[in-house]
Design a protein that fits this description.
It is built from eight helices and seven strands; from the N terminus they run βαβαβαβαβαβαααβ. By secondary structure, it is an alpha/beta fold. It comes from Noviherbaspirillum aridicola.
Length: about 260
């Protein structure tokens, strides 16, 4: 759906070179927003992603390779976005990593990295984006949490702790800005077939001697009653809704799009 609701606005989406972040970035660009991409990957592929968005949606696109575990690099990225486009109107905190292990076996450096990238980075981008949003009395902060921000799963202590933290941080940010034109909300996806999840599918297939399709069904059947993956495009449309005038009183919510996972 192409529109011009976000014409002249700038969206910065962390972890947007693939998966959910790319889906959200594309949906915002389809509404006329200029996009600052961030994430890892092959530089020619990242250039191609930007070019596709420019040509498909007629918007401007830029890229910053900030490592989201490093506050100084996050500061440089936010400064770059402001310099390039004037300000960040829509901030989407999506960068995330995962590690699976039981608590007593969890490598300390993996814990620290997950908390830094999945939780602390959202604090850093938000604190840096808010002054300009307040000056214009308009802003949309969208934190991509997870259904794991609402419920737990074994072997994912750092991820679940970080995502619960994101949901709490979302509520506080929303409350502190409740009297302004700035909203802050969290999206809590269930299983989405991103490169991160495909790795889990592949691992399950090889461990259990299943085909890739069987591994997908097996993964979904454990948690997601619909038996279908959520798509990055669906999450992108939810982000667009959060940016719309219709959502101006949606503040501090953790909105799960999870095929029924958290309803159980």
């Amino acid at each position: 759906m192409q529109g011009s609701m976000l014409q002249g606005k700038t969206a910065l989406v962390t972890g947007s070179t693939s998966g959910i972040g790319l889906g959200i970035a594309r949906a915002l660009a389809a509404q006329g927003a200029n996009v600052v991409f961030n994430g890892f990957g092959d530089s020619t592929e990242i250039e191609a992603v930007q070019n596709r968005v420019r040509s498909e949606f007629g918007v401007q696109a830029a890229y910053h390779n900030a490592d989201m575990s490093k506050p100084a690099e996050i500061e440089a990225m936010m400064a770059y976005a402001a310099e390039r486009f004037g300000a960040v109107d829509i901030l989407v905190n999506n960068a995330g990593i995962q590690h699976v292990a039981s608590v007593e076996d969890f490598p300390v450096e993996r814990w620290d990295a997950i908390i830094a990238i999945n939780l602390s980075s959202a604090f850093h981008t938000t604190r840096l984006a808010l002054p300009a949003m307040k000056a214009r009395n308009w802003g949309r902060i969208i934190n991509v949490a997870s259904v794991h921000g609402l419920v737990g799963s074994a072997q994912k202590s750092a991820y679940v702790a970080a995502k619960h933290g994101v949901v709490g941080f979302t509520k506080v940010t929303a409350l502190e800005n409740a009297g302004t034109g700035i909203t802050c909300n969290a999206i809590c996806p269930g299983w989405v077939l991103t490169p991160l999840v495909q790795k889990q599918v592949d691992a399950r297939a090889s461990e259990r001697g299943l085909s890739n399709e069987e591994a997908k069904r097996s993964l979904l059947s454990e948690k997601q009653p619909s038996g279908e993956f959520v798509t990055p495009e669906q999450l992108g449309e939810l982000a667009v809704f959060f940016c719309s005038p219709a959502a101006s009183q949606v503040r501090g919510v953790a909105w799960n799009m999870d095929g029924g996972w958290a309803a159980q």
